[in-house]
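Posting this for the archive.
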Amino acid sequence: MEVKKKISPQAVLALKEALSVIYWKKEDLQQFIRLTLNNPAIVSTISWSLTKREIVKEMINRMTNRSDIYESDLMNLIFAVVDFNDFGNLKYWDDDGSKAKKAKEAVDNLRSVTKGYFQITKEQEEAKLRKSKADENLKKVLSLQDELLQLKVYFNKIAINKNFNQRGFQLEKFLYQLFLLFDLEPKGSFKINGEQIDGAFTFQNTDYLLEAKWAKEVNRGDLATFCYKVESKFKNAAGLLISIDGVTSEAVSTDFKSIIIMDGSDLLAVLDSRISLTDLLFKKRRKASETGNIYMNFNALFK
């Protein structure tokens, strides 16, 4: 009778380290784990308010303690991380390259300590088939790119519309669909106390009012008017002004502290899948908090 070789303690420790650093955002790590496991129910039993290291430690410890249930899924995780070679998700938070370097070293270390462990056996082939199934699930997630492509076609149709009033309504509809795609709980245009609001959405527990303009560069007066709308609402409300043609050079100053600005180049970066809408909002808000600069588009943020 053939005796199975146990997963070594070194491999378990190396797996914990690699899983903790290959993704920056916890939701990306959560999705990676769910798509890799045959029995992903354990993911829902972990508190994702913990740090990534605490989350990974808790999950792997539970799995190793119940190897009768999770041994094949531990192998799935090792296979998936050993094959991990795309660290692009880290680049937006990795100004000096240290995060990607650390992640690559952790994956290389896992490869090293598991080298020779996986032989070409029936068990390994079955694990590879399971990984292939996980890859297929991941491809379904990537259908987001197809939906973005359809929205880009719609955006380009709006761009050639010479009827500015009609184009404004089309832009509001486009933005509603875009924000819905990224689960930002959008709300269409509405009036409150006689004020016209182009829309609203929620991002990371903060409510945002939305103003959308596509006719000319936004000037200082436009910014001041929108800031008043925002600041006269709830105390913790914020605002996102989307001006397709940008803003005038004298418009932006540190006087405006409750809003951030997006322009046409930002939207195209999202539509081209160069950055997700949520990541872009995060970077803009972080930059505004750090520098007071409420208008840095995608090209300026990542040059």
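DSSP finds 13 helices and six strands in the chain. Residues 11 and 114 are 6 Å apart (CA to CA).
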